[in-house]
Automatic annotation (TrEMBL):
InterPro entries named in the record: Nucleotide-bd_a/b_plait_sf (IPR012677), RBD_domain_sf (IPR035979), RRM_dom (IPR000504)
The keyword ATP-binding is annotated on this UniProt entry: no
Keyword annotations: RNA-binding
Molecular functions (GO terms): RNA binding
Taxonomic placement: Eukaryota, Viridiplantae, Streptophyta, Embryophyta, Tracheophyta
Domain of life of the native organism: Eukaryota
Record protein name field: RRM domain-containing protein
RRM domain sequence ranges: 1-43
Transmembrane segments: none
Pfam families referenced in this protein's UniProt entry, alphabetically: RRM_1
């Protein structure tokens, strides 16, 4: 899942906390210097 418009202070850990409540996460990544991230669920 693409997550755009992130605040510069949002970390991978914050995305894990927010999206982890909806299912098992396989991968969470915020590219350096970008205001977007990617979240991958197991299912």
């Amino acid at each position: 899942i693409f997550v755009g418009g992130l605040d510069p202070n949002v970390s991978d850990d914050v995305l894990r906390q927010v999206f982890g409540q909806f299912g098992e996460l396989v991968h969470v990544k915020i590219p350096v210097g970008k205001r977007c991230g990617f979240v991958q669920f197991a299912n």
